[in-house]
Amino acid sequence: MGTNRQVLMAKEVATKWLESNMVPEYRLTVYLGGDSENLNIPAIVRVIRKRKTKITKSGPYPDLSMQAGFDFFILKSKDKQPLLDLESFFNRIGLETFGILGLE
Fold this sequence. Notes:
CATH topology: Alpha-Beta Plaits
CATH class: Alpha Beta
Order of helices and strands: HEHEEHE
């Protein structure tokens, strides 16, 4: 009888902790191809992270991070707006994007 109660209490504590510490994260996947070898993607992300640019129209976004893959990279942020701006920028220069995934 006591173990069931302990499990329920542990679930309640875990749920409360997750609800109070969970932060939404948005992800934008960009696929490389074509003339993407000529782009310095890490430099673009670094500039957006540090100051306002014409690409994002606002900023800086210090929480913007990047995860590289073989033929793609993923940009992550707590704020959706820089990813929307970057998605339109990358589409404008000819790179394919998968769209923004995340919690609303």
